[in-house]
Design brief:
heterodimer; A: 93 residues; alpha+beta; SH3 type barrels; seven-stranded antiparallel β-sheet; 2 helices; disordered N terminus; B: 689 residues; alpha/beta; Rossmann fold; 3 domains; seven-stranded mixed β-sheet; two-stranded antiparallel ribbon; 64% helix
Chain lengths: 93, 689
């Protein structure tokens, strides 16, 4: 099990505070920008092939309290396991 | 006549690639057998304007960077077998993501044609294309198609044939990765050239790009230590400048290139895609409703297989009985002929007893094809992920397990979709516990013989559930002993729901069903003859036979035969499970193929061409055994001694005899222990004795 990434505050280039948080903690229906992908090389390559690259807009379709959840990226629906969703860091304004 | 042109079909899973392949080749397709290829590659032929085309359906992949075996095999096929043209099937409703693979095919330096498939759907959803302009920007021909209607097929093949004749009509477009990365690519290309690579097998730029992406296969082919060192340094430099790993930065640049090309040429007028799909998903993947709906669907599949299949099954059964009668009629009444016995009891009885089961098999495969083609299978994996994760498996492991209800052999092949070896091996080893279609005739024989009709459906369900429960425990055991470690995180695309096409369903169902018929015609035919011989020889001397009352003659003959002797020798070992030598004899056949058990019981009990609908055989079973023994027979055949074909599949997929024999031995011992325990406890508690 990977450690839970605490939401961190990073000063954005524009000066406004941009919150970084794991995708797993984003609510249903919100659209966020993918900031970073943690985890191994294979995992990151697989995500990239599915359109999940830093900078991509990700909409959370279903974030149940437990189990995997569904996101929309580039017109397709992708299921991420809980563990995977914790490895994606997103920016939320 | 021209020499045939080889066209490879590439594309993401769910791009409609298989539908297009079916439209091109119809029924003229088969699973290709390339030496060393571990992933199923289908091949078919068609004729286009007098030109013979060989169409190869590559496994569906998201990219060509080696991550799974599908990707490795698709790439190896293109590089080593050099198809004349590659058609990349793009889902026109989602072109940007699907073009990612196209950029890699272009880099690979093969002639590429893009098929913008499901074009009707895209237009209905308000996507507008300028395909001429997009084609110029990407430097490859693009043809709009509608796979299930066959639209655009002519034009697509026209383009493919034209490109095959003149592959270098247009210079390939080079995807720009930006100054920093281009510098490193140039440096690595120079390094590769210095190391003696000539770029004839694969373009130098491709190798350099893959090295920077730390592609396992590319690294494997580069033996030069200096070059490896150089690659590592280049990666560090890129990471320092770009702030992320080169593989991510380069993927990002590819998407940038695609979105640049799409921005000018594709317009989305409505944002309607997936809305219906999302609504269906809201119910089907609901955190409370999803699981019961899934279980209900599975229950429905089994009920349908059992009830709907019984009508054609009875018809087939009568057909074989009549055939047996006709063949018997060739000999005069009362005469004894070895040949007649071989034909009627051995061949018609053995093969017929297995073939009557074909309607059930086809129905089950049809149900699985509907689940697959509609897109529900991916949801099933999603719903099961939480549960599967608890037992240390991947949500995707569920799909091979579901196929395992049909037959363990294709299910073992399907474990290739699992990327980590740990997940894959665990799934493979416990798969035979998922009750396959070949075991259904045994249950279909036993259940009505011993249980009241109200209990029959439930009994079948219980047996299946025991298999699933044991698979769960087995997986957990494997994961805590041989295959420790974290389960790979679940990442999977959910394709939009689609109405399956009749043609697609028919082809899926038939291809799998045909394998079963072939098995009946070859392996099972051979086994039937061997088993018939084992039960017929050595023959009881005539004078000894005459001395016995007529109703004991057949039994005495069997006791004298090789199979009877083997069964008798096994009896002390089988006794704790409540089995006698007759069951032991039939179990010998079941190892060769599970369904042979039924035919063999028929021969042992001398009821002629017995199958699972045979009432005389059921009557004899009822007379001789208790319901507890009936249950134990089902339990033992469920758990124990997977058939020879399964063991062979495990051997070839795990590339190890060790694991295959481990599977065989482990499951047989498990079956013995569980069945003996159930029998002993059942005897003690007086359950069904």
């Amino acid at each position: 099990m990977i450690a839970f990434n605490k939401a961190t505050l990073n000063p954005a280039p524009g000066g406004a505070a941009v919150k970084r948080l794991p995708l797993a903690s984003v609510d249903n229906g919100r659209t966020v920008k993918l900031a970073a992908i943690l985890g191994g090389h294979g995992f990151r390559t697989r995500l990239a092939a599915l359109g999940l690259v830093p900078g991509a807009n990700v909409r959370v379709i279903r974030n149940g309290t437990r189990g995997p959840f569904i996101v929309a990226v580039k017109e397709c629906r992708i299921v991420l396991g809980r563990g995977a969703a914790h490895k994606l860091e997103v920016e939320d304004r | 006549m021209n020499k045939p042109i080889t066209i490879a079909l590439a594309g993401n899973p769910n791009s409609g690639k298989t539908t297009l392949f079916n439209a091109m080749t119809g029924a003229r397709q088969h699973v290709a057998n390339y030496p060393g290829v571990t992933v199923e590659i289908k091949e078919g032929a068609c004729r286009h304007k007098g030109q013979v085309l060989k169409i190869v359906d590559l496994p569906g992949t998201y990219s060509l960077t080696v991550y799974s075996e599908e990707e490795l095999e698709a790439r190896k096929f293109i590089l080593e077998r050099r198809p004349d043209v590659v058609i990349d099937v793009i889902d026109a409703t989602n072109p940007e993501r699907h073009l990612f693979l196209a950029t890699q095919l272009m880099e690979l330096g093969v002639p590429v044609v893009l098929a913008f498939n499901m074009n009707d759907l895209a237009r209905a959803r308000g996507v507008e294309f300028d395909l001429g302009q997009l084609s110029r920007l990407l430097g490859v021909p693009i043809v709009p198609t509608v796979g299930h209607k066959g639209e655009g097929l002519e034009a697509l093949l026209d383009e493919a044939v034209a490109l095959a004749g003149n592959p270098f009509k247009a210079p390939p477009i080079v995807i720009p990765y930006g100054l920093e990365i281009e510098k490193e690519i140039a440096r690595l290309e120079a390094g590769l050239r210095a190391a003696g690579q000539d770029g004839s097998r694969q373009p130098m730029r491709w190798t350099a790009v893959k090295l920077l992406e730390q592609d396992a296969e590319a690294l494997r082919t580069v033996s030069d230590a200096g070059l490896r060192d150089e690659t590592e340094k280049a990666r560090t430099r890129i990471a320092a400048v770009a702030g992320d790993g080169p593989e991510i930065v380069m993927a990002d640049r590819r998407y940038g290139f695609i979105s640049g090309a799409c921005q000018e040429t594709i317009r989305y007028t409505v944002e309607a895609r997936h809305t219906t799909s999302d609504q269906i998903d809201f119910v089907l993947t609901h955190h409370v409703l999803g699981f019961p709906i899934f279980m209900g669907l599975m229950y429905l599949v089994f009920q349908l297989t059992f009830t709907l299949g019984s009508l054609p099954m009875d018809a087939l059964d009568q057909l074989f009985q009549r055939l047996g009668g006709i063949v018997s009629g060739w000999w005069p009444e009362g005469s004894e002929s070895l040949l007649r016995s071989l034909l009627v009891d051995g061949i018609i009885g053995g093969v017929g007893g297995v073939l009557v089961f074909l309607p059930n098999i086809l129905l089950l495969f049809l149900a699985i094809a509907v689940l697959e083609d509609s897109g529900y299978m991916a949801r099933a994996a999603f719903i099961m992920d939480r549960l599967m994760h608890k037992i240390g498996l991947h949500g995707k492991s569920f799909i091979p397990m579901l196929i395992g209800f049909g037959c363990s052999v294709p299910a073992i092949l399907a474990t290739r979709m699992l990327e980590s070896r740990r997940d894959r091996m665990t799934t493979m080893l416990v798969l035979p516990l998922i009750s396959c279609g070949a075991r259904l005739p045994i249950y279909a024989l036993i259940i009505p013989a011993f249980f009241p009709s109200a209990w029959q459906g439930r009994m079948l369900w219980i047996i299946y559930m025991i298999g699933i429960a044991l698979a769960v425990l087995g997986a957990k055991l494997m994961r805590s002993t041989f295959f420790r470690g974290e389960t790979a995180p679940l990442v999977m695309e959910l394709p939009p729901y689609r109405v399956p096409t009749w043609k697609g369903l028919a082809i899926h169902m038939w291809q799998r069903g045909w394998l079963y018929v072939q098995k009946a015609g070859t392996v099972i035919l051979g086994i039937s003859i061997v088993l018939w011989a084992l039960t017929s020889f050595p023959r009881l001397p005539a004078e000894q036979k005459q001395a016995l009352p007529p109703d004991q003659q057949r039994t005495a003959e069997l006791l004298h035969s090789a199979a009877g002797r083997m069964g008798q020798a096994m009896e002390p070992v089988l006794k704790p499970m409540g089995f006698d030598w007759r069951i032991g004899t039939a179990l010998i056949g079941a190892f060769a193929a599970k369904e042979v058990f039924v035919a063999q019981m028929g021969i042992v009990f001398a009821v002629g061409d017995a199958d699972e609908t045979s009432e005389p055989l059921r009557q004899k079973l009822r007379d001789r055994y208790s319901p507890l023994v009936g249950f134990c027979i089902m339990l033992f055949t469920l758990i124990g001694a997977p058939c020879m074909a399964t063991i062979a599949a495990t051997r070839s997929e795990s590339r190890s005899w060790g694991w295959a024999l481990f599977q065989l031995g482990g499951l047989t011992i498990l079956a013995y222990v569980v069945t003996a325990a159930v029998y002993q406890v059942g005897q003690f508690m007086q359950w069904g004795v």
